[in-house]
Amino acid sequence: MQAHGGAEAPDARPPARAGRPGADTGPAILPVRAGRQRPGPAARTTGLILGPVETAPRCARGVLAGALAQWGLRHLTEDGEAITSELVTNAVAASRKAAPPGTGPRPVTVWITAGNGELCIRVWDPDPAPPPAGPSLPGDLAESGRGLFIVTTLSSRRGWYPAPNGGKYVWAALPLDPGPPAA
User: Fold this and answer.
1) Distance between CA 8 and CA 78 in Å, rounded?
2) pLDDT for position 139
3) Which residue, 6, 25, 91, 93, has most beta carbons within 10 Å?
């Protein structure tokens, strides 16, 4: 493909790293393309920026449910909403924690991508600290601490990675194929 002026357009996407689902999605300046460049079905992506407020998880669940309905993936709604809710709740808490004194917390960003056989829910927050390594189920009387346990239980895989411009991405994936029914 030729860019303006006849020079070859460089690939503007960051190189993919292991453990980064949907590494080729996200904000990047891409050259204009006349057609598909990769074999296979196109990835479907939607995203939103949320203020670090109590209603953020509910808004993210609504966007997820709408996207899954539009993409014909309603069977992923229940688990997807639970995962989205937990990841966004944790991101809002991390944003509040990372806010310097005298400033407000920064918004969090959610990307929902269906492609390559899985649904990936990826959330950015400004706190570079990693999430707890091995989530465990808290005691019966604990008021919090179940979020990453729920994400781990429901997802086929999950992880995190540092964001190039600060903060981190925490993600979880679900297979698009519902698989065989449980016996």
Assistant:
1) 45
2) 55
3) 91
**Does 43-131+147-176 carry CATH code 3.30.300.30?**
no
**Model pLDDT for residues 103-133, shown as the tens digit of each residue:** 999 999 999 999 999 999 999 999 999 987 7
Q: Are strands 118-125 and 44-50 parallel, antiparallel or unpaired?
A: unpaired
Domain range list for the chain: 43-131+147-176
- Amino acid code (one letter) for 98: A
| Interstrand relation of 168-175 and 157-162 (parallel, antiparallel or unpaired) | antiparallel
Place of tokens 């030729």: 2
Tokens representing 7 are 């020079």
Closest CA to 19 of 180, 170, 178, 176: 170
Tens-digit pLDDT profile for residues 73-108: 999 999 999 999 999 999 999 999 999 999 999 999
Q: How far apart are the first and last CA of the chain?
A: 52
- Put the strands of the sheet holding 44-50 in their side by side order: 44-50, 108-115, 118-125, 168-175, 157-162
Instruction: State percent of the chain over pLDDT 90.
Output: 60
Tokens of 164: 């190039």
